Amino acid sequence: GTWNVPLTPIIDAAFIAGAHRSSFYSPTLSRIFYDGNYLRAMFGTFAAILHPVGLILGFIALEGVGAQALPPQWVVFTTIVLLGVFDAFAGFLAASIFFAGTLLTGNLGSRDELLTVVGTIGIFFAPALIASAFRPLRREVSTFAEKWERVTDYLLASVLTGWTVSKMVGSLESLAGIQLPITAYAFSIGAWSAVAVFIRLVGEDIATYIYPGRLAELHPELREPWRAQSMLSLIFNTALFIFLAEPFIGNSIQLWLGW
Fold first, then answer.
1. pLDDT (tens digit, 9 = 90+) per residue, 131-157?
2. DSSP, res 101
3. Measured in whole angstroms, how far is the alpha carbon of residue 11 from the centre of its chain?
4. In sequence order, which residues have a C-beta less than 8 Å from that of residue 226 and are 6 or more positions away?
5. Helix crossing, 144-170 with 111-134: angle to 10°?
6. What digits encode the pLDDT tens for the residues 205-246?
7. Contact status, residue 172 vs residue 136, Cβ threshold 8 Å
8. H, E, C per residue of 41-72
């Protein structure tokens, strides 16, 4: 009954189609589309409430800094990060508004400004993807060994994601080349992210055991990426690594050895 409401089939079909089509060009974008499947499995149409919230928070963040290439006030920043933990697509919407607004107002005129905005929007929607890279967000448990693995999922995914987010926030000063107030709250943002990941795992388990049919129905059929995608992805990731790492260690032999 929690998902048997109007528009649920339409919203389900839209996200399944988005994940299916984008998987040909970008597996990461496809992952963002179906990241909130556990919420849609439980709540149907109501899960989409997070998406306009993401848009609104993106505008609030943009207005709060006057469309400058600066991270928003820490409460707004943390709220967007938490939203992105529960549904990466909602965080992605907030990040898109923030990036587009900064770009269209002409405030991405320097390398430092671009680095600051890229670093900021990355933190907005990356935590859920980071957590799933550390440990599976969803796992069916039947044996004692699998139960122990699931306990490990909860602990490692929460702690490591919180630690990573904290370090990402702390690194924004180096990207911007100036002191930023947000870095004073790096530990707090990381701690809240860890708590959100823990709650997200609880939600994933509820969906796995109480809504298995819905989860299976929402699982998209992904396409194999086009042949050039892996090469283009490698080139992009390499360029991004050099672009982000150079402010920290300079254009040196260490940078190129790391590459």
1. 988 998 988 888 888 889 999 999 999
2. H
3. 20
4. 24, 25
5. 170
6. 999 999 999 999 898 888 777 676 667 767 767 776 776 666
7. no
8. HHHHHHHHHHHHHHHHHHHHHHHHCCCCCCCC
